[in-house]
Structures are given as structure tokens and as C-alpha cells.
Amino acid sequence: MSESRKINFSTVWLSGCSGCHMSFLDLDEQILDLAQKIRMVYSPLMDAKIFPENVDVTFVEGAVGNDEQLNLIRKVREHTKILIAIGDCAVTGNMVTLRNALNDGANVILKRAYIETATENPQIPNDVPKLLERAHPLNEVVKVDYFIPGCPPSADLIRYVLTEILAGRTPNMEGKAKYG
């Protein structure tokens, strides 16, 4: 397949553990086969700083937890044809949204992390992105085209979904996600 026939592919990491990106890398030598069909244009796995226009497929890992991520995911959606929520944090919010059960959860989390557990100079930093009042799974913020559940999803499931999309088919997820 020529370079011009490759799809523009990106991955995005929001509030999550990066386990989904590790599962993507667990494709091992199958990544070489995918490299014949995709052109990586943005990812934490590379040094791109600005999300590009005209992206065909984007995998997004993690929930939306701060204002910087909210702005990024809106830009990603605007410039991506097929957006895929990958992993339970992106699909349901998972661990990231546990703070939503707390009254004033964003401030409770910041105080716990930077004041109560500090051994020196306890203060909440002001040079980091502002936490949203509530953390959100992707579909609460933008339109999501496909969901790949799992914590993290298996490399085989990621490969299946990407292969189906590259072939122009809709992935059939019935019975595909396995937990624990």
C-alpha cells in the first residue's frame, strides 16, 4: 500500500493510566502489518505537539478530567472522522470518575494530594490544568463512534477493531470484551 493510501491515525491519552497504550504496543509484530496501512500523525508515543486536521481514526484513552483535556477532546472530535473510546476510563469513566461521588470532588482531591499528604511546602499548584468539577467518560463530552471496553482491553481486541475499520467494516463487539 502506498504512503498516500495510508489512513491518518492518532492516539490520545487523557486521564488514565496509559494501560491502553501499553495494550496497543502489545500488538508486537502485528504493529508492522498495521504500519503498512496507517500513518501515525499524533500520539504520546511520538513528539507531535499539535493535534492535526484530517485524521481518519483516533483512539482516545482516559476520561476527561481537566479543562485542557476538555479543549483537546473537542479539537480531536472536530478533526477526526472516526473517534474510538478505548478502555474503561474512556468508555465509562472508571476510576477517574470516582471523585464525582464527593461533594466538591475536584477540591477534595487537590487538598488530599497537595496539602494533606505534603511533607514540604504544602500548596495546591496553580500552573497545572484546572480540574473540572466532574470527570467524564468521552461520550458525555463528544460523539464517540466506537467503544473498546476493558481495563485495559486486550491487544487482540484492539487489533480486531482496527482491522475491521481499516477494511471498511463495522466491528461486531458482541461477546468480544472480557474482564478479569
Question: What's the helix and strand layout?
Answer:
Layout: E1 7-13, H1 19-25, H2 30-35, E2 38-42, E3 55-61, E4 64-66, H3 67-78, E5 80-86, H4 88-92, H5 105-116, E6 131-136, E7 146-148, H6 155-166
Describe this structure in words.
The protein has 180 residues and is of the alpha/beta class. The protein has one domain: 3-Layer(aba) Sandwich (Rossmann fold), CATH 3.40.50.700. The protein is 30% helix and 21% strand. It contains six helices and seven strands. The chain has a five-stranded parallel sheet, sandwiched between helices. A two-stranded antiparallel ribbon has the order 4-6. The longest helix is centred in the middle third of the chain and has 12 residues. The protein starts with 6 loop residues before the first strand and ends in a 14-residue tail after the last helix.
> Which stretches of 5+ consecutive residues score pLDDT under 50?
none
Number of helices: 6
Beta-strand level of the residues, as a percent range? 15-25%
Number of strands: 7
CATH homology superfamily name: NADH:ubiquinone oxidoreductase-like, 20kDa subunit
Oligomer: single chain
- What is the count of structural domains? 1
Q: What CATH architecture would you give?
A: 3-Layer(aba) Sandwich
Shape: elongated
Radius of gyration: 17 Å
Q: Could you name the CATH class?
A: Alpha Beta
